[in-house]
Design a protein that fits this description.
- This is DUF4034 domain-containing protein.
- It is a single chain.
- The protein contains 23 helices and 3 strands.
- Strand 2 (409-414) and strand 3 (418-423) form a beta hairpin.
- It has 3 domains: 28-52 and 313-424, no CATH class; 54-166 and 173-215, no CATH class; 234-304, no CATH class.
- It is 62% helix and 3% strand.
- Strands 1-2-3 form a 3-stranded mixed sheet.
Length: 424
């Protein structure tokens, strides 16, 4: 069997041989605000853990799988992956451990491909297929392993997206589009023998849903496929968000179908999320589509925000929802139409989310929110990216406490009382 490490392009082997990179370091956010925004030397203090508890857990699971495959211990990795999948293990921020491990297992190959395709066109001598060919050898040596099949299929889809990018079809060069289609076709072939296993495996069901990005499908089929995945683990909001996006007219659905499935999901997951199922399905769809935003049942959506935080009162979720309302939605260009009015109502929710639920600041979430939660975003410097999120969050949070600051008070976030304002 060809070792995966031997198939990584030689120019990148030194990089991949290094230990997993450490999270960027930041100064504590206990500093005077800019004088022009705090004329009376007010302070805003909020804990900024580096890394956050959620980030540490995600990194641990991802790097563990990455280390095992670098040692060619595929059987052990697959057993641990299946155990996490069967037990529906998740981080406190509701990220499935199986998905983290699956990414770690293919990370070296994906990073090599993305590096070669950074500008959308690989160099003539770039050994672009080396990594995926190595994974294909692993798949052949472990025929019948659904977990390894999922990893290799996901790797093909990731490379397909690296070829295609996220632009409109008309902007994608023919060569890139052909490569995208070929990788998705291969992923579908790999998963075909395990179709029946998707009924019990959230990882396989999620991989099956990911195929929709390349193979298409009508709205009813898309909704049914996602519904099966959601029912396997209702506590995981990621499939709900993905379904909402895929039900937009630009993909496989319609606005009526989006609204219908959001309500159906809320009903099916009511025990887990209250009205939150409606909010999760609409979450990404309304942030990138003005008409979907204009159609939103705003009171139901806001009720869902309250229910999500009541059931998941952890710092990660509070930061996610606050950043979403204040930045992803609140920083969109102002318009005078129905969508603009909806955005204004949602943006205003940041006020009570920050005041009632935030106890610490997670810069990465704010940085991703400012860029629309683009999963294909390429970040050159994690440190600078996180710093931009910290600056965005501090600017917004300062604005939310402007009245207290202008009164000369210091705003201090604590875990017990959320935040207090004391004389400066």
């Amino acid at each position: 069997m060809k070792k995966l490490s031997h198939m990584i392009p030689s120019a990148l082997q030194g990089f991949f041989a290094k230990p997993a990179p450490q999270a960027p370091e930041f100064e504590p956010l206990e500093m005077p605000l800019l004088r022009r925004r705090a004329p009376r030397d007010a302070l805003l203090r909020i804990s900024c853990p580096d890394p956050t508890a959620e980030e540490m857990q995600r990194d641990r699971h991802q790097y563990r799988a990455q280390w095992l495959v670098r040692q060619e211990r595929w059987e052990e990795m697959a057993e641990l992956l299946q155990e996490a999948d069967e037990n529906r293990e998740m981080t406190p921020g509701a990220m499935p451990v199986a998905e983290l491990m699956a990414f770690g297992a293919r990370a070296d190959v994906i990073l090599a491909a993305e590096h070669a395709l950074y500008d959308g066109k690989p160099a003539s001598d770039a050994p672009l297929m080396a990594g995926i060919e190595a994974l294909e050898h692993v798949l052949a040596d472990h025929a019948g392993s659904a977990m390894i099949a999922a990893i290799v299929a996901q790797a093909h889809m990731d490379i397909g997206w690296a070829w295609r990018g996220t632009g409109w079809d008309s902007d994608v060069p023919a060569r890139n589009h052909a490569a995208f289609a070929a990788h998705f076709e291969r992923a579908e072939q790999i998963l075909a023998p395990f179709d029946k296993d998707t009924a019990a495996s959230p990882l396989l069901a999620a991989t099956h849903c990911a195929l929709l990005g390349g193979t298409g499908g009508d709205a009813r089929a898309v909704a049914d496929r996602y519904a099966r995945l959601i029912d396997l683990n209702p506590a995981n909001p990621r499939p709900m968000r993905a379904m909402g996006n895929h039900l937009l007219p630009r993909w496989h659905g319609s606005y009526d179908q989006l609204e219908l499935e959001a309500r159906r999901t809320a009903a099916r997951t009511q025990e887990t999320w209250g009205a939150g199922g409606y909010t999760w399905v609409q979450f990404d769809a309304i942030s990138c589509d003005a008409q979907a935003c204009a159609n939103l049942d705003v009171p139901f959506f806001i009720e869902g925000l309250h229910d999500i935080l009541a059931r998941r009162p952890d710092p990660h979720t509070a930061n996610l929802l606050a950043a979403y309302c204040a930045s992803a939605i609140g920083q969109a260009p102002e318009t005078e139409d129905a969508a603009g009015a909806v955005r204004a109502e949602i943006a205003d929710c940041a006020r009570w989310i920050v005041r009632d639920h935030m106890t610490e600041l997670h810069p990465m979430l704010w940085a991703h929110a400012a860029r629309g939660f683009d999963n294909n975003l390429r970040v050159r410097s994690a440190r600078r990216f996180a710093a931009s999120g910290r600056d965005e969050a501090m600017r917004i949070i300062t604005g939310l406490f402007q009245r207290e600051i202008e009164a000369g008070k210091r705003v201090i976030f604590t875990e017990g009382r959320r935040q207090i304002a004391v004389p400066g």
